[in-house]
Specification:
binds magnesium ion; alpha+beta; D-amino Acid Aminotransferase, Chain A, domain 1; elongated; 5 domains; Dna Ligase, domain 1; about 25% helix; Rossmann fold; about 675 residues; eight-stranded antiparallel sheet; binds adenosine-5'-diphosphate
Length: about 675
């Protein structure tokens, strides 16, 4: 086995690979771009090397630089992760030439499967069923259109070098063929430097079912059952599961055998995936699956296979790459239960899944109830340079229903503030009736897109809790700091307080009255609602409204509040009415009101010893709270205002004894 490996990747997959390497006692070498200098994968590794600026073409795709780092660090092998150089045969050749092991298949295997048209021709020859269509050399537009007519519409034009759902166009009518062809060609050329296409019959009610295969350098090949990745958006996987719902045993056997045949046809060594498209217009049938392509790498969704088989696929990769035979024979590989994986991305689903960037000011991943593979930590940034993945949330249950319940609960427990996520979209999918029944196909998301991305309206409770937080009323009731405790139950019940809040650009003034110990009347609609805070644990509240007890989490980062309630995240901004700072109004021996306002809290009496920066007064002005602190250590000489009093700006609220009378 290797003693030291380099991981030529970043984010969650780099961390995932390192987990296994560490468990096996293999030293790890990370590489990073300037944008990733402080990333989790760098912190996890035994050694880390800078390889260039943020753009991938200047860092993670730099073959020579990576080989240099192998030499410098003494890494014997390279794990490519997925994406980046994972399916680049020239990289494998360069490593071979340098005497470094590629943890993956041979350059020849990658080349054989690299182009969809050649791969299909090869598979056809090997006796693996392929999607009916045209996948030969001639690329004349008129000729291609004739082929499409022969195949029968609808057809799918695919860039032969395509990947990640790019370079594909569905054509329903001959009139649309020419323009779809040229746009597929353009996209293929732009994204992959190859404008050539193949044409496939568009499978009627398609399900994407793929088989995990593994080969070794001794001619063995096995499969580790199937994954269903039919929940897709724009040909990109969203939620994956294993096994495939309602898969008949004869079909599972036929697909597994076909996949192993495919792997053997190219002397495959390492982890690979044979992707099939399945026509389910007449249900799942053993004669209705067709080879689409092979991914010659570890797949993003490999964890669902690990969960049902109990195998560590990265460990298998390392064993095979180091020359060992496969750890198990086909007959020894079994599966149990059901697993799901959801891809949590920083993207704005209602805004057309726009990728989002931002700092993860709050990140609470459900790692107590699920397996979470993530490359980010609280405070990390989702940068514009790479895939905006935050985490993969992976669950395993005794059966599909139980596992889906776990997935939903885990996603609802996921709390991210600082950038928008697709968590709401994912939970909506978990609640989708058809998905719950296992009635999936690749068109499911598109058909119900509108309801899946619709955001719930801001609930009154979210606004109310935000208002209480903004007004400083959600401090722990049993705080040892008397100044905090004051906030809850002062006599200023008569006083009306206002919190100015902004929701989706609209400002709203929310009136709050204190009724009693942590009990408030919040005016949101016609009649005020009563909220009682039962317990406060950091940012977590239990509260009662209208007799019902509920749980919420409110996190604040500067003027941004995020309220997590019922599995959703709601964003509220506290507008900066004035650019005041907390220290306003303190000067020398006095505390002076910096603006007209209401003295909400006054925590001092004559003779008290105070220390510099001790909060003494909370002044509410222009709907914002301002904390006025002691300007220095000293003794209070006089208190000139009362809590609940409205004061003018410039009013002296407190005076300290002259400094020569206090020992400092
Ligand atoms: P797999 O087939 O392994 O599940 P995909 O085909 O979904 O992987 O993705 C292939 C590559 O595209 C991966 O490198 C992945 O990082 C990237 N990718 C997948 N989904 C997205 C996304 N929503 N945004 C950006 N990149 C993505
Ligand atoms: P990529 O390399 O981008 O992953 P694939 O060939 O694997 O491209 O196809 C991606 C997705 O497009 C599939 O998962 C499936 O949803 C859809 N698709 C591909 N081929 C067909 C087809 N012939 N009929 C219907 N849907 C298809
Ligand atoms: Mg694919």
């Amino acid at each position: 086995m290797f003693k030291k490996i380099l991981i030529a990747n970043r984010g969650e997959i780099a961390c995932r690979v390192m987990e296994t390497a560490k468990r096996l006692g293999i030293k790890t070498v990370a590489v990073y771009s300037d944008a990733d200098a402080g990333s989790k994968h760098v912190a996890m590794a035994d050694e880390a090397y800078r390889i260039g600026p943020a753009p991938v073409s200047e860092s993670y795709l730099k073959v020579e630089t990576l080989i240099d780092v192998c030499r410098k660090s003494g890494a014997e092998a390279v794990h490519p992760g997925y994406g980046f150089l994972s399916e680049n045969p020239d990289f494998v050749d360069a490593l071979d030439a340098a005497g470094i092991t590629f943890i993956g298949p041979s350059a020849d295997s990658i080349r054989a499967m690299g182009l969809k048209d050649a791969a299909k021709a090869l598979m056809e020859k090997a006796g693996v069923p392929v999607v009916p269509g045209y996948h030969r050399e001639t690329q004349d537009a008129g000729f291609l259109k004739i082929q499409a007519g022969k195949i029968g519409y609808p057809v799918l034009i695919k860039a032969r070098a395509g990947g990640g759902g790019k370079g594909m166009r569905r054509v329903d009518h001959p009139d649309e063929f020419m323009s779809a062809l040229s746009s597929a060609q353009r996209e293929g050329e732009a994204s992959f430097g190859d404008g050539r296409v193949l044409i496939e019959k568009y499978v009627a009610k398609p399900r994407h079912i793929e088989i995990q295969v593994f080969g070794d350098k001794h001619g063995n090949a096995v499969h580790l059952f199937e994954r269903d990745c039919s929940l897709q958006r724009r040909h990109q996987k969203v939620i994956e599961e294993a096994p495939a719902p309602d898969m008949p045993e004869d079909m599972r056997k036929a697909m597994g055998e076909a996949a192993v045949k495919a792997a053997k046809a190219i002397n495959y060594a390492g982890a690979g995936t044979i992707e099939f498209i399945v026509d389910v217009s007449e249900g799942l049938r053993a004669d209705r699956f067709y080879f689409m392509e092979m991914n010659t790498r570890l797949q993003v969704e490999h964890p669902v296979t690990e969960m049902i088989t109990g195998e560590d696929l990265v460990e298998w990769q390392l064993l095979v790459a180091s020359g060992k035979p496969l750890p198990k024979t086909q007959g020894d590989i079994t599966f149990s239960g059901h697993a799901f994986e959801a891809r949590l991305y920083a993207e704005d689903a209602p805004k057309g899944f726009l990728p989002a960037i931002g700092t993860l000011t709050h990140l609470n991943l459900p790692d107590e109830q699920a397996r979470v593979d993530s490359g980010v930590r609280p405070g990390d940034e989702i940068s514009p340079f790479y895939d905006p993945m935050i985490a993969k949330v992976i669950v395993h249950g005794p059966n599909r229903e139980a596992a889906l319940g776990q997935l939903l609960a885990s996603l609802e427990a996921t709390k991210v503030a600082g950038c928008v996520t697709n968590a709401g979209f994912l939970t909506a999918l978990c609640r989708h009736e058809g998905f719950a029944k296992g009635d999936v196909d690749t068109g499911l998301i598109d058909r119900d897109l509108e309801s899946l991305v619709s955001e719930p309206d801001m609930p009154e409770d979210a606004l109310a809790l935000a208002a209480l937080t903004a007004l400083g009323l959600t401090k722990a009731p049993k705080s040892s700091d008397p100044f905090d405790a004051l906030a809850g139950w002062r006599i200023w019940s008569a006083s009306r307080q206002f919190a100015l809040m902004e929701v989706a650009g609209d400002r709203q003034d929310v009136e709050v009255q204190v009724l009693g110990d942590h009990e408030y009347a919040v005016h949101l609609g016609e009649t005020p609602a009563t909220y009682k805070l039962i317990s406060i644990d950091g940012s977590k509240f239990t509260y009662v409204r209208d007799g019902g007890r509920k749980l919420a989490v409110v996190v604040r980062s500067d003027n941004d509040l995020t309220v997590f309630l019922g599995g959703h995240a709601y964003s509220i901004v506290l507008p900066d009415v004035m650019s005041s700072d907390d220290d306003a109004g303190e000067a020398g021996d006095q505390i002076i009101a910096p603006m007209p306002g209401l003295v909400k809290v006054l925590n001092a009496s004559a003779g008290d010893a105070v220390t510099k920066d001790q909060p003494l007064v909370i002044l509410e002005a222009m709907k914002m709270e301002h904390t006025l602190k002691a300007p220095r250590d000293g003794i209070i000489a006089e208190v000139m205002a009362d809590a609940g009093e409205q004061v003018l700006d410039g009013t002296v609220l407190l005076a300290l004894e002259a400094s020569n009378e206090t020992a400092s």
